[in-house]
Write a structure and sequence with these properties.
about 20% strand; Rossmann fold; globular; alpha/beta
Length: about 180
């Protein structure tokens, strides 16, 4: 399932870091360079009603939080809304992409649920994938990925270096977009 050429990257972050800002900025710059970035980044917090995600291929913001219940505790992720976001990302992938960005690797993905199916789908189509992985979930990530991923620090420079390395190693000269030419 996973590619030994490191087309799969984990952007590993600490509690005090903001992987979403790093991924959002990176995606915007790639799109400005003519690449097609598909996926989503998180907006808002998991433990309140602000939890949402921005679809990178359309710019649309989707609410992912459950309807507000003041008695609820912990993460308020609405699984039906996450599944809907996953279907929209899968549809966008079917139209082609240069990169898939997944906002988080968590317990649902660890268990083969959540957005994990999108990772396999992208890699099967030779589309590189980057996913934010909290340091506390990294051991689960290694098991999930079978050890076949690259670990990146939660820094824009690390993402850029990874992108340059896979873009060069996956060179395709028969495609017209700037991103495809740079690959």
């Amino acid at each position: 399932m996973f590619d030994a050429q490191c087309d799969l990257a984990a952007l590993v972050y600490e509690v005090h870091q903001d992987p979403d800002a790093v991924l959002r900025s990176f995606a915007a710059d790639l799109n400005a360079r003519g690449c097609r970035v598909v996926g989503m980044v998180q907006a808002g917090q998991c433990a309140d009603s602000s939890l949402s995600a921005v679809l990178l291929h359309s710019g649309e913001t989707l609410l992912l939080a459950q309807d507000f219940d003041p008695a609820a505790r912990g993460c308020r992720l609405d699984l039906a809304r996450l599944q809907n976001a996953g279907m929209r990302i899968a549809d966008a992938l079917s139209h082609g992409a240069d990169l898939l960005i997944i906002n988080r690797f968590g317990k649902r993905e660890r268990d083969g649920k959540g957005l994990s199916h999108l990772i396999e789908r992208a890699l099967d189509a030779d589309i590189p994938v980057v996913i934010a992985v909290g340091r506390d979930h990294f051991a689960d990530w290694i098991k999930f990925a079978g050890g076949m991923s690259v670990r990146l620090g939660c820094e824009r420079d690390a993402l850029e270096a990874w992108w340059r390395s896979i873009s060069t190693s996956n060179a395709r000269l028969d495609v017209g977009s700037l991103c495809e030419i740079l690959k």
